[in-house]
# Entry
Amino acid sequence: MKKPAESYKAGPYELKLKAYFPDFGMDNKGMPLTKSNDPVKPAFVFEIKGPGLKPEGEPYMYFPRQVDKVNFRQDEINGALADKLELSVGSMDDVQISEYISFLNIRVDRAMPFIWVGAAISMIGLVMGFYWHHRRVWLRIDNGRLALGAHTNKNWYGIRKEVAQVLQKSGIDIDPKILERKEVQT
Amino acid sequence: MSSTFLFVAFIIYCIAMIGFVIGITGQKSVRVTDPENYGRRWGKIGIGLTIFGFLFHVTFFFTRWIEAGHIPTSNMFEFMTFLGMMIVLAFIVLYLIYRAQALGVFALPVAIIMIGYASVFPQEIQPLIPALQSYWLKIHVTTAALGEAFFAVGFAAGIMYLLQSVNFEGTSRSERWEQRGVEFTLFTLIMIVAFVVSVFSFKAAGYEAVFTHQEKILDQNKVEQVVTNRVEYVLPPIVKPYQSELVEMKPFLGMTQPLFEAPSWMEGANAGRKLNTVIWSILLGIVLYSLLRRIARKPLGRALQPLMKGIDPDDVDEISYRSIAIGYPIFTLGALIFAMIWAEKAWGRFWGWDPKEVWALIVWLFYAAYLHFRLSRGWQGKKSAWLSVIGFLVVMFTLIGVNLVIAGLHSYSGT
# Structure
């Protein structure tokens, strides 16, 4: 049923396999097709040559299962030929028609270690980028003039506020907003 | 027993929010002599109450855990309440960093709406389905929710920024669009509130309507069989399920028959009831919105704008950014990396383009774009606030829309 032979001999007749549909069905235009590769509703199209038939052969459609023979009206498809010939097999006992298919899918994805290492690296990067912060505060005296600077990569709001608080404690009242200059932002 | 704790937590959150509102609005009152001190005092009361409520919420979480025997994050009700709890946690963290009282006025309502919305879903404790029986349920769901909660607070701060900086008097094209965008966002929130209130009112009134509809299914032997399904409505049926029979319907405002039938192309379980819910939410949202607008006598955005007076927009902008920056690595870890590890263990593949996976990736890419635009293209202020608002809408779709609308491997958590 998986791989039928190309031709058969039955007495004086010669059968040549023209088409095989393991799971016979029709598409919406009425053309025959197979729905799967599993022998669920097998159908064979033979070209039969032999006595009493046309020399170039005549097509014959054969459904092994009795249900399909009736359902798909094998005799009507084959027309006149059906009256002359009847294809039958001695026994269907060793033929397996598939009804249910279960399979075990085993997969090994060798890329997984790379995926996990990649995920770990990106996590480290994200944590470093978003949670590690550094801040610096400078004090410099040039010719008796005190310059104060502060730099941070996170929470500019916080450093502004804290610098303003420090200044307030040393007696300088200042609005934290004034401390920031837009162009310093990185 | 545990749900009492949730209810208490819900009430305390509402009171805490009112505390923050008093702190903000009272500062402008002429009778307040020291506005800064006044605001600080009410801020302390607000955050104190919030933490108090949060403790009740945590108690709810653990008592339910004990009652159920598994971590209560396995269905929509449990997950949404957990998300509400995480939003409150994220708010507390950001409040402790920035001490911005106004954030409470907007972040707490998001958590409150989330808990309210959660309670619409069935609250019974359900046994854990086999697919979820793994310790990864604890790790993946909690970290993903925490990341999303920070996005929610970023959204709240984004709305604050927009309320403050959109020119509600403006008449130019872009200003008009911004006004509409703010109104639409507020309308969405109001719609959820209207939906929750309506479900509870109809449930309290004992309203119900029952339909049956026949569905063809293939049975074990692949023979077509007709099964009769029962669909129960809590809200009065405007739309009945496709090809269904009315069994019982209590009259509502003289309406004894459903007005329409759901179209046949809407597939999925209970499509008719879901469509009915959506229609009701929109209708009631419009009613509640127009009522509020009548009372305010102006667009709601403009009505809320005075709340933001005296708050520095740059600070709000930074809160929004910081919240998202804190949430982003957590979200990456929880919703992508832990999810991938669990998927690899449970389904044998780390990524399978399941709808939920796809949407988690969309959220992740969206916030990646947000951070890139902000940090390297200098998209600060309005642009970044709009992105934080839209981003959270995408998050909500991922959490709710994907479960309810699209069927997939994650649809167990829908109802």
The helical segments of chain A are 66-71, 74-78, 80-84, 112-131, 156-169. Chain A touches chain B at residues 105, 107, 109, 112, 115-116, 119, 122-123, 126-127, 130-131, 154-158, 177 (CB under 8 Å). Residues 164 and 170 of chain A are 10 Å apart (CA to CA). The first helix of chain A runs from residue 66 to 71.
